[in-house]
Design goal:
- The structure holds two protein chains of two kinds.
- Chain A is globular, with a radius of gyration of 26 Å.
- In chain A, a hairpin with a 2-residue loop joins strand 7 and strand 8.
- In chain A, helix 10 crosses helix 15.
- Chain A has one domain: Serine Threonine Protein Phosphatase 5, Tetratricopeptide repeat (Alpha Horseshoe).
- Chain A has 19 helices and eleven strands.
- Chain A is mainly α.
- Chain B is mostly beta strands.
- Helix content of chain B is about 10%, strand content about 50%.
- Chain B is globular.
- Chain B has a 22-stranded antiparallel beta barrel. Chain B has a five-stranded mixed beta sheet with strand order 10-15-16-13-14. Chain B has a four-stranded antiparallel beta sheet with strand order 3-2-5-6, with no helix packed on it.
- The chains are: A mainly alpha, B mainly beta.
- The interface between A and B is large, with 78 and 75 residues.
Chain lengths: ~500, ~1050
């Protein structure tokens, strides 16, 4: 009998080990489950910011997207031949497996999938009534509009490097795989490229839908610059239509946000865009002037870091930065000595550096996605191209940007012998105004202009690249070509 | 329910036995050698658990059933003897000493077994084999000790965990390292440091506390560890108290360590001569010149002097052990302080252990093992790979014409880099090792409590219920300081980074064990158990930069710029049920089966549970009368065995891999959430199907013992990160899937020969020899190969289907063209192409046959597999001799038929400012007709030598034989009683004594990428191995 007693103790001991549900299904403490992310407005708002942050990744809008669009062109010479900091882009030697070609492609599409996953989740939760009492109809639409706009910007940005410009073949060249649904499994690896025109159609659809649902403005300058609202969507549309060479549409869109009032151009409704009186102040804290339509914010705790941030590429003190090409015929030589945009340059050891992004220590300078100055110049150019005649308003718009920094440089309508002379002037102005802001490549592409050659001394003397050359646009990411069986490359 | 049924059956059987009629037998047991009584001998009735123990006078008294027929006398160190009772009541026995260790007890999963009853494949290494070897952790000492176990020290840096492979590679993305079980509890292993100073988690166990190491290799032996068994299991058993007398020992040694096989580098005069020639050859007008030192003489620096040192070490261990009839104890304290061969590197360990067993009453035993260890590791950045701060690389890359100090005695620095001292050199970006090793500091400190508490009930003889609760609490603090003066910290104006990492684990195991013999011949064993294991690890980091005052070198000091802290939290949980059945008939026919069912928290609901198991059979032919009659005079032992089983590997599965997760972040200053992980509900364990067949035999009365095994291990469901189309925008770009497969197969031979075994002279030789063939059978769809990258920069390995894992990948080269002095590359079409660095970029590559400019050679386009770094044959050879008081050991390890990528050689021949080996100075091509391996030196040429693209010139055979330890000692016995000293041994030992190899790198035992599966066999700027001399003293009181 005693043995039975002893057994019972032993048996009890053995059975004490029992499956613990709680231990077997642990909940992570540093990430949220997908089931809980639409439970509060704060979490939904955090997801909205998460889309912006996805775009702000170092490989994309955090820094490198801007950089590649400048350094593959003619205005900059690298201090270093480090391949990590864009040397292959600078000398047009990128191939399908080059880091920047693969990384930017992935970063762009990561942003797009982040947006698609949010749109999918938001719509599902809304349709199922789970957001009742959490989001108002206005907020639901606002968040959706922000997502649409960011998706449009992402596709537009990828087109700039990986597809032939719209004007070549009227958009009939291969564009991008249009990914519009949330991808959260190992399915759907294969998807063919849509044509450039089809991608543009989607971009415009997203932007138009977004415009219809967007809010007019936010409560702070900070939000007005770092989040999408109605006027910023319209501003972006002027850029998209300009690239499609739909001059009339540029005129229509820009008219919504450009009106002459009190002797200066400004947006009549919504966020009141206007040129900042001082060019150099745009680049200083808080970076949220009325001119900064949309910028990527950075802080000491959230920034792309060295070798990625704009300061890493353009600040004189950075080890691997780029200085201006001072040979005749480039942006530097086109600037007048009295032009603030030239006097504000920094000169170190005979080399000139732009001073827009000086915070190399903590990389906190905002990255400008679109400025009001561009909208004015977009409108000016479209007005002239629409009728091939130089109009007074066009000259006034051009002067608004030009004389801010170079008061003595005002043009008269009579200065332009013909429309071509105006085009030359406006491209020159854009080249000077937007140095380091990633506009240069877009300007060359949208007009199918050759990428001028450049002499980088010991870094190499690089020949011009004509629109017919295979290196005029980037190749497609090697990983995409390997794993997407329907994908096609950009030729040799 | 099943379990209860089993209990009832066992209960019935036991009760029946207890109720039988009894008779009493007495007698004395003596030793054969001296005829003295033997206390503590186990006397049992064969086939039962009825037994007794002899007293101090060697006498025993035993009550036993009248039906009993045979008594079994067993005692550690003596050969077990069976004596038929034949109606006697007084039985005296003389036990023979077990000179040939045939009766050793081997620790297996959840139990122990006699060596000759093991049906699975197990290698045992006893404490003596690793005693006093001057290493940081026991795993380093296991090298060459067990067949099928390959152990590679990755470099000579202190406390760098060795790469352990038991019967090959069993994973690709997961770990191929074995499970380590200490006193029944699985513990943390691997490097637990977050900084440059390594901290092998296994170094927390003082090797001198270890009684035995048993390595479970086949599925039969490992099946009870289920999902963690695929890589094999190493069971560590620590010492326990024995003997009535209190035993006190002291073990201590002092010694020093220094690198061996440093490269022979060009001195300043040779450097200038060669590099100026290279400059001229490149068309440059630059002429480099000497710098002069403080003494006005030309600077001529051997940079190894500023990287390496002769490190002093000392080690002490004191143990107290003993036992009373109810309690046994083992108490040890240890202190180890080892300076490394790299300047400012050291390893310090303080440890204490108490192992105690107490018999509460007849049926309850309690035991506790409590060990505390403090480890402190200090080291500069030792490399490997491409860091400009890597000490091992700086020792040979820096020009000998530069000096560590300027004439005014200050460090020769130019910002982050070393100063060029007016020599004409430009673009030297490497750091001054004198400065950074002096001024930067990287330390790691660990505290570890390893403890188990256990209680066992033995309600009936033969039936044991045991509960074991074990904890492994580890905390590891890493601290980094980078000086603002120069090096990595220069651009930040100094920086500090601290990390605290704290993995904790508890394991609770309950087992029931029942052994019974029926009719003396039918021997059964049953084991049933349940186990829970919970692991949680927390890490957090903090950093600051821009020092407020150069005085501050710690995080807690004043710094201008703070940074956001970081960290990770992980947790996982196992719950398992397991059982084992074994049977033998009269120790002739053996059968064993075990099964384990594991659930792991990281897997999805549908896949949480997995079942693993193994079975084995053995035939002990020597116990067959007809065989022993026929060949028993020669073969004292013949056993044939075979096993099969399926076990798992869970190391590639994340803690939360089945969950869809959103990660939090920042959009400048506002919080964000974004989709971060695809919940992978299909993920499962990797499984290994293991087959094993073996033959063991003893010759000449067991003087020669041999074991031969064949194994085949088929690994399926290998977890591979399957690349997704990037345009899908999947976070991380890959989804892990169970998709690959691979196999390992080989033979193992262990041969022990007791050449002489007399009290005056003994000589034992142990040889082990293993073969390994590994082949990858399938990778993910769309993936033809997996690339292995060294240092994130150099593609050195490529794993392809149909070949061994981690093959070396390079462009084939065919020496130097005697006419032009150019390196001959071979392109993908087999055409020979030469490289002329002084030409403009467009015309550097030319067909050797004169047909003009050739397309540029690239690794991706023209590379091919140039060798396998997995030794096909490896093993060890130990010789132990004693003559009177003298003893001597000689231990060799060897590996044959494999290749290594000597990336360091590329650096040694690089024609940038880098220093070169003397070989370059002496044999570089000069004029047409010169037959040499070194191309015409052209300044800036980093292609011909293999820096830019790995070339087959730098892939070499790694075959080696290494004299791992050689030692000699003398033991003084019969010391005057007044000293209370039983014996003293003094000895001298040389560790890593010699290497015999044709390999041109510093050591063919190397692994720049350490434990990585896909990049074995790479030697890239890795610190050489250290040679250590020690002088020691062991005293037994």
């Amino acid at each position: 009998m005693k043995n039975i007693y002893k057994f019972s103790i032993g048996l009890a001991l053995l059975l004490l080990v029992g499956c613990s549900k709680e231990y077997l299904d642990p909940v992570p403490q540093t990430s949220l489950s997908s089931l809980t992310v639409f439970e509060t407005k704060d979490r939904i708002e955090a997801q909205v910011n998460g889309m912006y942050d996805a775009m702000k990744t170092a490989q994309f809008y955090g820094g490198r997207f801007f950089v590649y669009n400048d350094i593959r062109c003619d205005n900059f010479i690298p201090k270093s031949s480090n391949l990590v900091t864009g040397y292959s882009t600078w000398n047009h030697s990128v191939i399908t497996s080059t880091n920047e070609v693969q990384n930017l492609w992935s970063a762009g599409y990561n942003t797009i999938n982040t947006i698609n996953i949010f749109l999918d989740g938001l719509k599902t939760a809304w349709d199922e009534g789970k957001l009742a009492g959490i989001l108002t109809d206005t907020e639901y639409k606002q968040y959706t509009s922000e997502a649409y706009a960011l998706r449009a910007i992402s596709y537009f940005s990828l087109l700039q490097l990986y597809a032939k410009p719209f004007n070549m073949g009227n958009g009939n060249n291969p564009g991008l795989p249009l990914r519009l649904i949330a991808e959260t499994s190992s399915e759907n690896n294969d998807l063919a490229r849509s044509s450039v025109a089809e991608v543009y159609t989607q971009i415009l659809k997203d932007l138009n839908d977004a415009e219809g649902m967007a809010i007019a403005n936010y409560t702070t300058d900070q939000l007005n610059t770092t989040r999408i609202h109605k006027n910023s969507i319209i501003a972006y549309k002027t850029r998209v239509y300009l690239h499609m060479q739909d001059w009339a549409a540029v005129g229509t869109e820009s008219a919504k946000i450009v009106a002459l009032s009190g002797g200066k151009f400004s947006a009549p409704t919504g966020v009141a865009f206007e040129l900042n009186p001082s060019f150099t102040e745009i680049w200083k804290t808080p970076y949220t002037s009325k001119e900064s339509i949309f910028s990527m914010p950075h802080s000491t705790t959230d920034n792309p870091g060295s070798q990625n941030s704009l300061p890493s590429y353009y600040f004189s003190g950075a080890t691997e930065s780029y200085y201006l090409n001072t040979a005749p015929g480039y942006a530097f030589s086109a600037m007048d000595d009295a032009d603030v945009r030239k006097t504000s340059l920094e000169k170190v050891n005979e080399n000139y550096f732009i001073s827009k992004f000086p915070d190399y220590t903590s990389h906190s300078n905002y990255s400008p996605v679109i400025r009001y100055a561009e909208v004015l110049l977009n409108r000016a150019e479209a007005l002239v191209r629409a009728g091939n005649t130089v109009t007074a308003e066009a000259v006034e718009l051009l002067n608004a940007v030009r004389t801010r920094s170079f008061p003595a440089g005002a043009y008269q309508q009579a200065d332009f012998a013909d429309a071509d002379a105006f085009y030359t002037a406006i491209l020159k102005e854009r080249n000077i105004e937007f140095l380091g802001e990633g506009i240069r490549n877009m300007d060359l592409m949208r007009l199918s202009l050759p990428i001028p050659g450049k002499d980088g001394g010991s870094m190499g003397n690089i020949s011009a690249v004509n629109p017919t050359d295979p290196t005029y646009i980037w190749p497609i990411s090697a990983l995409e070509l390997t794993f997407n069986k329907l994908m096609t490359g950009n030729g040799k | 329910m099943k379990r209860i049924l089993m209990f009832s059956t066992l209960l019935l059987i036991t009760v029946t036995l207890v109720m039988a009629q009894t008779v009493q037998i007495t007698g004395t047991v003596t030793g054969s050698e001296d005829g003295l009584p033997l206390p503590g001998v186990n006397v049992t009735v064969k086939g039962t658990t009825i037994g007794s123990i002899t007293g101090a006078d060697g006498k025993y008294v035993l009550s036993l059933p009248v039906s009993a027929q045979t008594l079994v006398f067993s005692f550690i160190g003596f050969v077990t003897q069976e004596v038929p009772i034949q109606g006697r009541t007084d039985i005296n026995v003389v036990l023979k000493q077990d000179l040939y260790n045939v009766d050793e007890v081997v620790v297996v999963a959840y139990g122990t077994v006699q060596k000759r009853d093991i049906t699975g494949s197990v290698s045992s290494v006893k404490a003596d084999a690793i005693r006093n070897i001057p290493v940081q952790s026991f795993d380093q000492a296991l090298q060459g000790k067990a067949a099928g176990v390959s152990i590679t020290m990755p470099s000579g840096a202190l406390n760098n965990p060795p790469v352990i492979r038991i019967r090959g590679f069993n994973s690709i993305t997961g770990s191929s390292s074995p499970l380590i079980v200490v006193d029944g509890v699985p513990i943390f292993s691997g490097d637990v440091s977050q900084t440059y100073s390594f901290a092998n988690a296994l170094s927390d166990i003082n090797p001198s506390d270890i009684e035995s190491m048993d390595i479970l290799k086949d599925a039969s032996a490992t099946a009870l560890y289920g999902s963690r068994a695929a890589n094999g299991v190493i069971i560590i058993t620590t010492k326990r108290g024995t003997g009535a007398k209190t035993n006190v020992t002291y073990d201590g040694y002092v010694g020093y360590t220094a690198p061996y096989h440093l490269f022979d580098l060009m001195n300043a005069q040779q450097y200038l001569s060669l590099k100026n020639k290279a400059l001229a050859n490149s068309g440059s007008s630059t002429v480099l010149k000497y710098a002069s030192g403080a003494d006005g003489k030309n600077i001529d620096t051997d940079w190894a002097d500023f990287v390496y040192q002769k490190g002093f070490q000392h080690n002490h261990a004191i143990t107290f052990s003993g036992s009373t009839p109810s309690t046994s104890y083992f108490l040890s304290v240890g202190y180890t302080n080892q300076e490394g061969m790299i300047r400012k590197s050291s390893f310090t360990r303080k440890n204490a252990r108490l192992n105690i067993d107490h018999k509460l009453n007849k049926w309850v035993t309690l035991a506790a093992n409590i060990a505390y260890t403090n480890g402190y590791n200090v080291s500069p950045n030792t490399g490997s790979d491409f860091s400009t701060a890597g000490a091992a690389r700086l020792a040979f890359v820096l020009p000998s014409i530069l000096g560590p100090y300027k004439a005014d005695g200050s460090y020769n620095i130019n910002g982050a880099a070393i100063g060029t001292m007016g020599t004409g050199l430009t673009g030297v970006s490497y750091y001054n090792p004198a400065a950074i090793i002096d001024l930067c500091k990287f330390t790691n400190e660990t505290d570890r409590v390893l403890a188990t508490l256990s209680g066992s009930l033995e309600p009936i003889k033969g039936l044991t219920l045991k509960t074991v609760y074990g904890i492994d609490n580890l905390s590891s603090e890493s601290v980094e300081f980078r000086t603002p003066l120069t090096g990595d910290g220069y651009s930040d104006n100094g920086s500090v980074w601290n990390s605290f990492y704290r993995p904790k684990r508890w394991t609770w195991t309950n087992t029931l064990n029942y052994n019974i013999s029926l009719l003396e011949k039918f021997n059964f064993g049953f084991l049933a158990g349940a186990e829970e294991q919970y692991t949680k690890s927390v890490q957090w980091t903090a950093s600051k930069y821009d020092v407020a005052d150069p005085f501050f070198t710690v995080y807690q000091g004043s710094w201008v710029e703070p940074e956001l802290g970081g960290g990770v939290i992980g947790e996982n949980y196992f719950i398992s049920y397991f059982g084992r059945f074994n049977f033998n008939y009269n120790r002739k026919y053996y059968l064993e089966g075990s099964v384990r069912r594991d659930a792991f928290s990281g897997l999805s609901k549908d896949n949480k549970w997995g079942t693993f198991g193994g079975a084995s059979v053995m035939w002990n032919a020597s116990n067959e009368q007809f065989i022993s009659d026929a060949i028993g005079s020669v073969f004292s032992d013949i056993r044939l065995k075979a096993s099969f089983g399926r076990v798992g590997n869970m190391s590639g599965i994340g803690n939360f891999s089945s969950l869809y997760l959103y990660g939090a972040g920042l959009y400048a200053d506002v919080p964000t959430l974004a989709f971060s992980q695809i919940g992978n509900s299909a993920l499962k364990w990797e499984t290994s199907d293991k087959y094993d067949a073996g033959l063991s035999f003893g010759l000449l009365d067991d003087k020669i013992q041999a074991e031969i095994n064949w194994y085949y291990n088929n690994v399926n469901g290998l977890i591979l990160d399957v690349q997704q189309t990037p345009s899908k925008g999947i976070p991380g770009g890959t989804i892990p899937q169970n998709i690959g497969s691979m196999f390992n197969t080989g033979f193992e031979l262990t041969l022990t020969s007791y050449n002489f075994s007399t009290p005056r002279f003994s000589w034992t030789t142990t040889l082990n020899f293993s073969t390994l063939k590994n082949e990858v059978k399938a990778l993910a769809p769309g993936i033809d190969y997996l690339v292995g990258t060294t240092g994130g920069l150099e593609t050195t390995n490529r794993t392809v289907v149909g070949e061994p894992i981690g093959n070396l990948f390079a462009v084939e080269t065919r020496g130097v063209d005697p006419q032009s002095g150019r390196r001959i590359f071979v392109n993908k079409d087999g055409k020979e192409i030469t490289y002329s660095h002084e030409n403009p970029a467009a015309t550097r590559w030319n067909y050797r046959d004169g047909s003009g400019v050739a397309p540029q050679i690239t690794l991706a386009g023209d590379g091919k597999i140039m060798g396998s770094p997995l030794p096909k044959y490896f093993g060890g050879l130990d010789n132990n001799l004693t003559y009177l008081g003298f003893d001597m050991t000689l231990n060799l390890t060897y590996a044959f038929d494999f290749d290594l990528y000597c990336g360091s050689k590329a650096g040694l021949r690089d024609q940038r400012f880098w220093n070169n080996s003397v070989e370059v100075f002496e044999t570089a091509w000069e004029k047409p007709g010169d037959k040499t391996n070194i191309p015409k030196p052209v300044w800036g040429d980093n292609v011909s030598n293999g820096s830019a693209i790995p070339i087959s010139e730098n892939i070499e055979r790694g075959d080696f034989v290494k004299v791992r330890t050689v030692s000699a000692g003398y033991t003084f016995k019969s010391l005057p009683a007044i000293t209370k000293i039983e014996k003293i041994r003094i000895y001298a030992q040389l560790f890593n004594a010699f290497v015999f190899t044709k390999y041109s790198g510093s050591d063919p035992e190397v692994s720049t990428n350490r434990d990585a599966n896909l990049t074995p066999g790479v030697d890239r700027n890795t610190a050489p191995q250290a040679r250590t001399w020690t002088f020691g003293l062991s005293v037994n009181f």
